[in-house]
Write a structure and sequence with these properties.
The complex is a heterodimer of chains A (about 575) and B (about 350). By secondary structure, chain A is mainly alpha-helical. Chain A is built from 23 helices and two strands. In chain A, α4 packs parallel to α8 and α8 packs across α10. Chain B contains 15 helices and ten strands. In chain B, α6 packs across α7. Classes of the chains: A mainly alpha (about 575), B alpha/beta (about 350). The interface between A and B is large, with 76 and 70 residues.
Chain lengths: ~575, ~350
Amino acid sequence: MLPNALPDQIAMSTSALPGPQLLRTGVVARLRRGLTPLTFTALAVALIVALPLLSLAASLTQTGTGSLQHLSRTVLPAAVLNTIGLILLVGSGTAFVGVITAWLVTAFRFPGSRHLEWLLLLPMAMPAYIIGYVYTDALAFVGPVQSALRAWFGWSKADYWFPDIHNLGGVSLMLTLVLYPYVYMLARSAFIEQSACTMDASRTLGGSMSESFWRIALPLARPAVAAGVALVLMEALADFGTVEYFGIHTFTTVIYRTWFGMGDRIAAAQLSIGLLCFVFVLAALERQARGSRRFARTSRRERILGARPLRGVTATAALAACALPVLLGFAVPAFLLVRLHLSGGDPLFGARFAQYATNSFMLAGMAAVIVVAAGALLAYALRVSASPLTRLAVRFATLGYAIPGTVVAVGILLPLGLFDNTLDRFMRGSFGISTGLLFSGTLVALMFAYLVRFLAIATGGIEAGYARIGMNVDYAARTLGSTQGALAGRIHAPMLRRSLLTAGLVVFVDVMKELPATLIVRPFNLDTLAIRAYQLASDERLAQSSTAALAIVVIGILPVLLLTSAMRQRH
Amino acid sequence: MSTLTNRRQFLATSAGLTVALTAPAIVRAQAAQVLNLYSSRHYDTDEALYANFTTGTGIRVNRIEAAPDALIERMRAEGANSPADVFVSVDAGRIERARELGLLAPVNSEVLASRVPASLRDPNGYWFGFSSRARVIMYNKDKVSPAELSTYEELANPKWKGRLLTRSSTAIYNQSLTGSILAANGEAATETWARGIVANMARPPRGGDTDQFRACAAGEGDLAIANTYYLGNAIRKPQPADAAVLEKIAVFFPNQGGRGTHINISGGGLCASSKNPHAAVRFLEYLVSEPAQRFLADGNDEYPVVAGVAPPATIARFGSFKPDQLNAGVFARNNALALQIMDRAGWK
């Protein structure tokens, strides 16, 4: 049994601000004082990133063509239920798989555990719609599995039952398989960074391994797990390709149907805002539940949590539990893609293809740097400024991840077009010079799109990293005369190295897979692997599209491997 | 210490600014003779189609290929400064919407008016069809005799209960088909028809058109509603899953005794924002030339619109048919109501 009051070192008390009262009032007051240039910049960045959302919000003042009434009488109720079901299934699924696997590979040693550490990240490289396509293709009535069964047993349609994945459970499984790595990654970082002393203390006080997990490790990792699940849910809410292919109506498919099927842009924007409110409430609830507890480490001298060797049945069970998500989320779909590729791959495979790959790589690399820089700025501003305005702006700015890609992309086009055209009118009126479209249709616009779409990943990941650095570090540094810039650059950055790298690599992989914004916002003649895969798949040329899909996966693995070595650095 | 940080910040900021300010200029550096194409076609033969135009005219073709709705939104956002010269869509509904939104300008061209049949172009020259596809009934030869088939309307007959395969109402092709039935029979009859279709479905709608006739060949249903070019694609480049398709699936052109089979177009028009309308019209006229018609049709196994140009062998084998003469703009304008009807009928 654990005693109720844990040693101070565990630092999970409701107020983790140590040190003399004097220090607290003096430095805190300085830290929390109004708008410094840094927080001002952060506020500006947040507002710019929030522009597309604000342009959607402008729709609230208008009325559409009456589609909302029609929708609420027909498809909307089922769509809302499906969306809630999707959130519950994917949220619990990814939390379960991500946390269990992260705990197993961190706290125990079993055959293959060192390899599974990185193998478990691989499904992240698999775009959700691709895994949906290959599984439905393989498991369909006409697919290889059922065809083989019918051939062997001489069955026809009515003679046998076969699990149907075209339902909410099926699509949730697909999304869980490719999204759990977000939770795994953040949970694992949190477990690794937990002081071995903490666990030792718990064990010394008589706690079993599972008690230590439930009462120490998991609560300490909670901000990380919550951040991971939040990213997963936003990604799941924004998904269109997979749910549409599975024939499941969700809030997102209804938004598409309203906009593109019924041509009611206003109602679609209003629905998008509804979706956002939902996300906002969800995020606020989690933060509320976490309360004012702080989860920082107190010392940097700790040892890494020692992994306990497992043997026999428990080792096999651990291996199976960790191998299953890798098999289903990566190995099987990759095998199916290779099989499709061999049955008739992309006819343009060759020099042209290398160009697609280079474009994807460059865009993803540029975006990773820009998005992480902005994310770090916002996370830092959140840390040093308690201004409610900053907080609200950052929360709002990072909602872009939850909006369906096409909607957010259109939301980006609008303010850009407005800016360009207003500037053009002004320049023409004042100087007789036409500036045309300055940003629309350029790389700058595309990077802006990625920033809006993926800022949540960077900010969330870096915030989770910050949560593990006690505020006393900041107080000490500021007491010793450090400027805000020096605090961020010389003190936080090295401590956050892993969080920054992780955020950058996740953004990289996500941009590689990103489709709708790239498709709409890009400059002329810029093709990427994701675009190529989509174009062929949208023509129902699945085998041909498998080549580009495989290339996305292969290039996506590179950063995953980098990420692994980054995560291992501390061993 | 803080000087160093400041210098770094300064360097980072100026590097960022330089990139931000020069990137648009670099991207924008273009040759004089350029045609900017916003297209939702993206077939590999299109490259040869554009290269041939460049060879003949010296005009280079810049492309952005995306879903038509996305391109429409982009043109709307870019406004009068949009670089788009020509908009190409693979569905009449979308190109008609572009016209309704004022994104297209009329073209008065003798070449286009004479070579494109009246039902496949806008009466005022806002858009022109360049290739067409028929939405047909595909049936499993082992299960269905063509004598049992007649019209789209008949697919709602209870005798087909549990035997019909079709995709979701989200698919624009089903919206356009329903839009044409709406034009022929009116709202009430169309809703009754849609309910009959839903009642006859062999399974809830899922997947694309290819998935429907593959399932039909495998015996999951007996009839499938699909566009001709998907079967043409399967014939041109069969996948392992298509072996049964080639053996068992046949095409039936419905409504031959009446208004004809529903066809949809891939079409294009001059953008209202075009700074280069002369080149744009040349391009549109090029698309109805014989070599271009062949590229367009072969690229996606579609029917050429110009009389005298033969369809590719992959679809010519289905035989000739009488197409519905309803102007594409009419069923296009019916799309939104058609979708609401399908929603009410429970067509997922």
